[in-house]
Amino acid sequence: MDGSDLRGSPQQGLITATFGFFIGFAGVVLYGPVAPQFGEAMGLSGFLLGLLVAAPQLSGSLLRIPFGAWTDDVGAKRPFIILLLLSIVGMTGLAVILLYLYPDGLAFRHFPLVFLFGSLSGCGIAVFSIGSAQTSYWYPTDKQGTALAIYAGLGNSSPGVATLIVPVVITAVGITQTYLLWLGLLVVGTGIFAYYTVDPYYFQLRKQGLNAEPAKEQAQAEGQELFPSGNAMESIRNAAKIRRVWALVAMFFVSFGGFLALSVWLPSYWIELHGLDIRSAGVVTAITFVLVAALIRVPGGWVSDTVGGEPTAIVSFGAIGCSSILLVITRDLWTAIAATFLLAVGMGVANAAVFQLVPKYVPEAVGGASGLVGGLGAFGGFVVPPLLGLFVDFQGVDGYATGFVIYLVLGVGGMILASRLYRNVQQQPGTPAIS
After folding, report:
1. What is the pLDDT along the chain (435 residues), one digit of tens a residue?
2. Quick check: is 340 in a domain?
């Protein structure tokens, strides 16, 4: 068996992983653009509204851990497709609800069902850790920061695109038809991904019957540098034993979890506090936050490769803290827009910096570490919106602004963790990064 039996290339691996992530990750904003309508139809409090818009993040975050580690066993293609299919099931259930219950038949008693289908629809979000591991296995170590930033940056742009387009389509054809179109695009996109995606060389060789060591040797000859350490549970255990992995988890909770939370919460913020209509709120959320935070990851990855992930993260978390202070105190629309833009830049660059550090610290268990960091970190997208909703329950409309004190605390915490990592590296420059 020789290299002629192998298919694909790093470029193809990156393109297909990014495409699959793009179509699955749009589920982040499943309820965000229509949160006020759903909240009004079911009579939800601020806390329950925050819980509803965060529903996709529940499965989208926790499933990253086992599926990211499973990638170390079987490659990325099979786990990727399974999660996208589960997302299709959830979207189908939501479409049925909209067809038969929305708006007059939808009531508070339907909240558990709407939450369930939202959680299933969020399964596509969980492909993040799978695609991260796949990209890491395709690319050499010195190019991973840039490759992962391209993957995550372009893939992360899908909630922004959805937030921008969904309100416009809703205005034109209504909520039900909009979500039916979304379901159709998800089905077609899943089919395209399944047809074109290719696992990294090592996993192709294993599926062709080679044992681990011969497969590793041949894949190395083809240019692959990183390899899984063992089975899925072993990958998770190996990653969990490394103390710095948990620092990365906490940092990603702030940056990526924070990004997910605001992607679904900001439309309500612009509508309720600043009086924008649904279309304007979608445009402002997409342009000033979601797309900025997503696309800035690409140059953020380059900066992380150039100056180091730790110092890049320190500055980024500082930007998160400073912008949060502005959002707490301002009621002016344009000041809030500027602060949101700064917040997006801080979160996007911090996301790139954190994931640039994953293969550096955990080269022997990239899948498990990606699952832990991506899964538990992204869980912030589920935890934070209900907390923001509590501020609204206690303070009314002003709670949409004062709730950003949560991000001030998170930003300061991220700075402290990144600073500690940087000090350790500076004090022990000749020691391995995994300790």
Report:
1. 555 578 888 899 999 999 999 999 888 888 888 888 888 889 999 999 999 999 999 998 888 888 877 887 888 999 999 999 999 999 999 999 989 998 888 889 999 999 999 999 999 998 988 898 888 889 887 787 788 878 877 887 888 888 889 888 988 999 899 999 999 999 999 999 999 999 999 899 988 888 888 888 898 888 888 887 666 677 677 778 888 889 899 999 999 899 989 988 999 999 999 999 988 998 999 999 988 998 898 888 888 888 888 899 999 999 999 999 999 999 999 999 999 999 999 999 999 898 788 777 777 666 667 768 877 888 899 999 999 999 999 999 999 999 999 999 999 999 999 888 777 665 555 444 433
2. yes
- Amino acid identity for residue 374 in this structure: G
Domain count for the chain: 1
CA distance 261 to 334: 22
Q: Which amino acid is at 170?
A: I
The model's pTM: 0.81
State the Cα–Cα distance between residues 348 and 379, nearest whole angstrom.
Answer: 17
Nearest to 260 by CA among 293, 284, 283, 282: 293
87 occurs within a structural domain: yes
Supply the CATH number for residue 354's domain.
Answer: 1.20.1250.20
Distance from CA of residue 171 to its chain's centroid?
Answer: 28
Domain range for 11 is 3-427
In this structure, the number of other CB atoms found within 10 A of the CB of residue 21 comes to 27
CB 45 within 8 A of CB 178: no
